Sequence to fold (197 residues):
Amino acid sequence: MAGKFTFLSEKGEKGTKRLEEVNLLVESFYGLSKTPDFHDKFGVDEINLIQDASLKICDTYYKNLKENKSFMESKDGEEDTRVNRYKIASGIEIAICEVQPFATSSHVNNVRIVNSYFAVFAAIGILMAWEDGNDYLMDYTFPNLNPSEQKEIHRLLIEHIDWLCLVKSNAHLYYFSNAQTWWALRMLLRELNEIRI
Fold:
C-alpha cells in the first residue's frame, strides 16, 4: 500500500480508520446496487466495483485534504486546522466523484449519477459516524416534517446529486462550499424537527 497509495499511507492509523469506514460504505452500497429496484431506478443492468475502490477513494481524499489544508488554517492563532465532519463529508464526496468507483456498461451519465448517489450515501454515513444525540439527517421519513417539507428536502438532495455529477476534480471552492451545504442541511433538519417536538 505504501508505494501506490502515498497520501493514505502517510496518515498511518488515522488513514486505516478512514479506510475501514469507506470500505464499509462501499460494500454496503455495492450490496444495494445488486437489487432490481436499484437497476430500474438508475437504468443500469449491472454495477461493477473498480479494483482497490476504497483505497483509491481514501488516497484521493487525503491528497485533496493536503491541497486544501492551507485554506483551513485557524484565524485565531490556534494550531487546529479545522477539519470538521462537514469538510470530511465534502472531501469524501469529491473524492468519490473523482475516482468514480462504480462502473457499468450503461451510458456514461448513468455511471456519474450512480457514483454521485453513492457520494451522498457516503457523506450521510460519515456524518452519522459522529452522531451526538438527536441527528435527523439519516431518518429519511423525517417524522416531524410535513409532506411539503419532506418533498423540499428530497428535491434538495436530488439537486445535490445533479451538482455532484458535474464535479470532476478537486477545487477548494467545491470543497468548502460543499461542506457548508452539509452543515446548512443538517441545521435545517434539526431546526425543522425540533420546533415540532
In short: The chain has a mean pLDDT of 79. The two ends are 49 Å apart (CA to CA). The longest strand covers residues 48-49.
